[in-house]
Design goal:
Elements: E1 7-17, H1 19-25, H2 28-46, E2 51-56, E3 59-65, H3 71-96, E4 103-118, E5 121-125, H4 127-136, E6 146-150, H5 151-156, E7 168-171, E8 175-179
Parallel strand pairs: 4-6
Antiparallel strand pairs: 1-3, 1-4, 2-3, 4-5, 6-8, 7-8
Helix pairs in contact: 2-3
Pfam families: DUF2652
Protein name: DUF2652 domain-containing protein
C-alpha cells in the first residue's frame, strides 16, 4: 500500500539544555513565563519557514517538505534563532533578577515522513521522526549549545560544506555537530 502523504522533508528540533534542572529550581509561574517567552522567540525567528507539528515541554518539532534543502539557509536561520534566544535569556535574567541556566541545541534531519490527522491534531509519522528524536539523546556533544546536522540532511542539501572556521565534530555514523561560539 503506497502512502500518498509520504514526502521528503526536513525535521528541525530546537531543544533546551538544562531544562529539567530549570523546572525543578524555578517557581512554577516564573518558569512557565520564561519557557513561553523562549519558545515564542524561536517560533518568531522561524518566520513561518517551517511548520510546527508539536511543542512538548522545552522542544519544538518543526518540519518542512523540501526535495532539496539549503544548508546555508538553514544554518543562517539557526544562528538567528540562537542569537535571539541568547538575547531573550539575557533580557529575562535582568528583568526577573534570576539566573537562567538554559542553552539551546538543534537537531536537523532529513528523510521521508508522512502526516495523519487525529481530531484537530496533525501528527508526523515515520522512521525519520524517530531518528531525529533519538539524536536529541546523543552522547557525542561536548558542549551544551550546538547544531547536529544528520548525514542524510548534509547529503540532501545544497551547499552543505561546514564552515572551516566553525568548531565542529565529524561523527561518521551520525553526521556533524557544529558548536556555537561561547
Amino acid at each position: 500500500m503506497k502512502n500518498p502523504n509520504l514526502h521528503d522533508g526536513i525535521i528541525l528540533i530546537p531543544d533546551f539544555s538544562g531544562f529539567t534542572e530549570f523546572v525543578f529550581n524555578t517557581k512554577l509561574f516564573t518558569g512557565e513565563y520564561i519557557v513561553r517567552q523562549l519558545l515564542s522567540i524561536l517560533i518568531d525567528e522561524n518566520n513561518q519557514y517551517f511548520k510546527i507539528s508539536e511543542i512538548e515541554g522545552d522542544a519544538i518539532l518543526f518540519y518542512r517538505y523540501d526535495p532539496k534543502p539549503s544548508y546555508e539557509k538553514i544554518s543562517k536561520m539557526l544562528r538567528n534563532m540562537k542569537n535571539a534566544f541568547n538575547r531573550k535569556v539575557q533580557e529575562l535574567t535582568e528583568a526577573l533578577s534570576i539566573p537562567i541556566d538554559l542553552s539551546l541545541k538543534f537537531i536537523v534531519h532529513y528523510g521521508k515522513f508522512s502526516q495523519y490527522n487525529i481530531g484537530s491534531f496533525r501528527k508526523l509519522y515515520g522512521k525519520t521522526i524517530v531518528e531525529a528524536h533519538q539524536m536529541l539523546k546523543n552522547g557525542f556533544a561536548e558542549q551544551p549549545s550546538y547544531i547536529l546536522y544528520s548525514n542524510s540532511f548534509l547529503e540532501s542539501s545544497r551547499n552543505s560544506t561546514i564552515n572551516a572556521g566553525c568548531d565542529h565534530q565529524n561523527l561518521s555514523e551520525v553526521g556533524v555537530i557544529q558548536y556555537f561560539e561561547n
